[in-house]
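Reference record
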Amino acid sequence: MVHGHPPSEQGPLAPGERLCDLAFLDHRGKPFSLYANHVFGWPKALFLIGSAEGAAEDLARFAALVADFGQAETHVLAVSRGPTDEDARLTQRLGLPFPLLSDPEGALHRAAGAAGAPCTLMFDPVLRLERRIGGAGQAEAALAHARARAAAFRPVVVGAQSPALVVPNVADRPLCRRLIDYWEQGERQDDMVAARGDGSGYANPKSKIRSDVVLPEDAALTGELTGAIARRLLPEVLKAFNFPVTRMERFRIGCYDAATSGFFAPHRDNTTPLTRHRRYALTLNLNTGDYEGGFLRLPEYGPQLYAPPPGGAVVFSCSLLHLVSPVSRGRRFVVVGFFWGEAEQALYEQTHAGPARDETLTV
């Protein structure tokens, strides 16, 4: 088994939410886990049905396309609410080339809102939901999604790679829009960088041209964003970096504007006495595609230019040199923040006093 750190209870599944390690049974009545090493780590199409017999025709359509799904490196599975002996009979009669599982408690069906009509859930390699497909032609629609995903994430031979984690669907589009709207109305801080002395910060347009609005701790948007990050991003940080994040700095919504050639020169995020507690940096894009330029780059380890889709996040060590290239058209909006754990919190409390100590969020 892999330690994928799934949530302990299955909540409603929306894009970006991760599937629990639910107690499925295969057609022989034996436990089946989607977190098993031979299953985990690949995109999946899960066809949710009521009874297996009632969905025989649709199951046959998925079976006919299973080789095509394989070419798109996507696993096909079906999940029924029926008894395992019914699943076993249909598996044998149709010669199903993929597992037909039973969801005896109905947990997945409830989470997906699939109490009635069948639906297909498309998951990414770490079992975060990408899309829910309903209606007719689900096998064909699921295959089209799998092929589009495979085309967007083609295998490449890597000669150099920046040690950064990229996670899509951390914030949904409506939340991204509300964060941009908050920046439009907020009190802005232009071109501010962390001071090396007392931590008050100072403007340095030679180093950074970005207009920031701080999200207050008690703002409703802060709670919504923190919750999404805790559910959708931090489990991946724990798995990828083996680091349990328990503290976050208050978030800033930043705007890099082409009108001022917004940019951030090469820098590190933990080099001052008041920033050395930081362990990981967060960049969460809010509007990819509305601008040109504005790429995040970590030049020490590779030439990659990072631009995840709206709501997608990049997390990397605060010790890494990084920059943001100038924006040449439009405006790039981004949420930036910093993560650390309990060991670093003691250091934070030593170096921050008074109101400054209240600028952290607890996970």
Remarks:
- The two ends are 27 Å apart (CA to CA).
- The chain has two domains: 24-152, 165-362.
- The chain is about 25% helix and 25% strand.
